[in-house]
Amino acid sequence: GLPTRVRIHEVGPRDGLQNEQAVVPTEVKAEFIHRLAAAGLPVVEATSFVHPKWVPQLADAEQLFPMLGDLDPRRLPVLVPNERGLERALALGARRIAVFGSVTESFAKANLNRTVDESLAMFEPVVRRARDENMHVRGYLSMCFGDPWEGPVPIAQVVRVCRALLELGCDELSLGDTIGAGTPGHVQHLLAALNEAGVPTTRLGVHFHDTYGQALANTFAALQHGVTTVDASAGGLGGCPYAKSATGNLATEDLVWMLHGLGIETGIDLGRLTEASAWLAGFLGRPSPSRTVRALSHK
Ligand code: HMG
Ligand code: MG
């Protein structure tokens, strides 16, 4: 059966805007996040405390985060790769973080300048300290369904990194299809394998990029398997600067349209959400790739 409620983890301001060529002014980012929160998104991933040379688009994290002071920081996760990143986040009052590992060696090198195991070792003190500070910790896994350099990714590799991140103390995991190569059968196989390995489905979220148009179908497969946390980006913004073949995430509006059509609650006001994405698309100077945003904007 399908769940009655799904928690959408909005990643547009982080995963979306990290990949925009244009420099988006900090004030625009802040307004976008406020609009998303006002549309009812329970969680809005705000920014990353990474090296500014690695992701220049998010180099304004120190300026942006204080502009969100009226929102509960437990609704505003931030990406943190290492202890330096955690210190920066803590100094600004962040209460929820995500570390981001890779299932493949190629992407671990490209994204974190580390091997898979070296990155896990880098996260270990970060997760420990964050838990001591009573923060909520998410662990991302990239390239769970395919890798641009290595091709198909063995399920056993995903299982290993999942278990390692849970052992570090992550509260939840997000299974990333960074390049959008996965298909629904693959999703089912992976979730079944994780179940068998003792990874509770309740701790898993899914993070689909829509490169091959499979994101919504993959999400449906995950829902059928009991997953209730789904990542999406408003207006379908997104990609990854260190994986060139990646396009945007599953669009939040397309997801909400499907979920509400299925009678699944999200707490989201689709009209307000669409307005936020259309507003940002106007600012970026190109139409949103979300089919639902386009359809509702033409009404
Ligand atoms: P490195 O070059 O190995 O860094 O990069 P290092 O540890 O050798 O340190 C070098 C210098 O950087 C030092 O300064 C550090 O202080 C500084 P120096 O002593 O030379 O003056 N430094 C920092 N400065 C600010 N903030 C920090 C920080 N850390 C070190 N946090 C590093 C390693 C992890 C820093 C780098 O590789 C990095 O920043 N990577 C981030 C890449 C990234 O953000 N990618 C996008 C997010 S992942 C994603 O999008 C996938 C996802 O959506 C899921 C999916 O779709 O699959 C989540
Ligand atoms: Mg992503």
UniProtKB/TrEMBL annotation:
- Please give one Gene Ontology molecular function term for this protein: lyase activity
Q: Which InterPro entries is this protein grouped with?
A: Aldolase_TIM, HMGL, PYR_CT
Record bears the keyword Isomerase: no
> What keywords were assigned to this record?
Lyase, Metal-binding
Domain Pyruvate carboxyltransferase: residue ranges: 6-274
State which residue ranges cross the membrane.
Answer: none
For this chain, the family text in UniProt reads: Belongs to the HMG-CoA lyase family.
What is the protein named? Hydroxymethylglutaryl-CoA lyase
Classification lineage:
Bacteria, Bacillati, Actinomycetota, Actinomycetes, Kitasatosporales
